């Protein structure tokens, strides 16, 4: 396969990953109980983030070696995994240019406890919970857990009860309150900040090289998000 065909495939995969991530975040933005949008939002996000991370690793390898990974190398590096915690760990190990203030802030953010808790929940979903019903039907000896969505709801409740002002508002107004929507906004902000941090690799420093810059257009909506725009799904009308 020619270099041009591989770059076209990479561009398509990157665009697909960003579209899935945007779609997942928009579903979370629109979510209200009882509703199936939370499942759909998580499903789109896990797929989109997995694809996005893998595109970054492919570009990084191309920059380091001057060629694309082979199928054998891809598997040897365990890049076939669906476990987002493993993939995120690999992202953290990339040689970020911490001489830039914004990049150092991103590196610090990667250690955020809430972010890592959410990534673990998505990892459980991507490796187990999305096939829970199938495993039950076929009689698998240890059906996978379907608790990822419950865990995310539990994490949101923990965030809510940990904020005295928001929790007081929630108790008086209920699930449809602005307090509940603020928690959803903070979850979305986490993901947008994460994607923005990785998007910066396409244009900041030399991690992804010239090909990163060349193929950066799909990530521009995240790349140019300002701090005061995070959590708002500014790209909502485009999804």
Question: In a few lines, what is going on in this structure?
Answer:
The protein has 239 residues and is mostly helical. It has helices spanning 3-30, 37-65, 71-76, 84-92, 101-109, 113-127, 132-137, 148-161, 164-173, 178-199, 209-214, 220-223. Helix 9 (164-173) packs across helix 10.
Q: How does this structure look, described?
A:
Helices cover 66% and strands 0% of the residues. With 239 residues, it is mostly helical. The chain has one domain. The protein starts with a helix and ends in a 16-residue tail after the last helix.
Shape: globular
Number of strands: 0
Distance between the termini: 32 Å
Structural class: mainly alpha
SS strand fraction: under 5%
Total count of domains: 1
Radius of gyration: 19 Å
- What's the helical proportion of residues? 55-70%
**Helical run tally:** 12
Mean pLDDT: 87
List low-pLDDT spans: none
User: SSE string, helix = H, strand = E?
Assistant: HHHHHHHHHHHH
**Main beta-sheet strand count, sense and barrel state:** none
Record keyword descriptors for this entry.
239 residues, mainly alpha, globular
In terms of topology, how is this protein built?
Elements: H1 3-30, H2 37-65, H3 71-76, H4 84-92, H5 101-109, H6 113-127, H7 132-137, H8 148-161, H9 164-173, H10 178-199, H11 209-214, H12 220-223
Helix pairs in contact: 1-2, 2-4, 2-6, 6-8, 9-10
